[in-house]
Amino acid sequence: MTDPRTTVVVITHNRCGELLRTLGHLAELPERPPVIVTDNGSTDGTARAVARHHPRVRLLRPGRNLGAVGRNLAVREVRTPYVAFCDDDSWWSPGSLSGAADLLDRHPALGSVTARIVVEPDGTDDPIVRELRDSPVPGPSWLPGPALGSFLAAATVLRTDAFRTAGGFHPKLWLGGEEELLAADLAADGWWLTYADHLTIHHQASTARDPTLRRRHGIRNTLWFTWLRRPVGPALRRTLDLARTVPRDTTSLHAFAEAAAALPWVLRERRVLPHEVESRLRLLEPAQRASTARRYTG
């Protein structure tokens, strides 16, 4: 059941054991996808371990931690029509890559397919799954699943050319809700994003993570996206809503300070979305306010 349509891209930083587990699962997939790993400056022997245990994996070593831009670096090397992302603590289920490729083959205006996320070792749905299933975004009748306003990089297959044309992940955003800006730009380019409940990716959250830093970047990146792409009225409303609802602590204060310090850059790069894309984002605002899964990450 080899399937030459999709390449899997993984970014990693100092999670050698978890990465090897993920690569082991990917090596067992019946699709036998090419795999590209960007080692974001690991110092724990990751590169040596990958070369030893998974010599068929293409390993990129930029020499520093590029965050989500490590995915951009890998996509430059992709030669397949579709690219699937996963993190070093997640892996695709057998058949899901082929299933996503089938949907993309079947629907030429479909830009990305996001899979159901199963939390391991419990085997339960991630809380975000309900929000994906119940997305309020209206879509065309041909769309094979709920229309989405954004996607989760570690659970999504995209058209390689659409990703490249949209510019990939913005280098300023690093990690933490970095998908929101790219998703909006894909929609502005005319692509639809969907959720597919019959496709699965497994996620066993790494113990080597800094949730405080991720939350700070998530709040900052949400503010940057808001002022880079939203009209003034909705941008003000979203900013005030965040200010009212984020935890009142130093992490939130630093996030707002970082966002404000970049105002000259934001104003230079500001490009308001087309009306039809903006209208979809407005429909998402009530869900964003109520979300316990993504409240501070886009």
UniProtKB/TrEMBL annotation:
Q: Which Pfam families match?
A: Glycos_transf_2
Top-level lineage group:
Bacteria
Glycosyltransferase 2-like domain sequence ranges: 7-130
Pathway given for this chain reads: Cell wall biogenesis; cell wall polysaccharide biosynthesis
Keyword annotations for this protein, in alphabetical order, are: Glycosyltransferase, Transferase
Is-annotated flag, keyword Amino-acid biosynthesis?
no
The keyword Cytoplasm appears for this protein: no
Report the family membership.
Answer: Belongs to the glycosyltransferase 2 family.
Q: What is the name of the protein in this document?
A: Glycosyltransferase
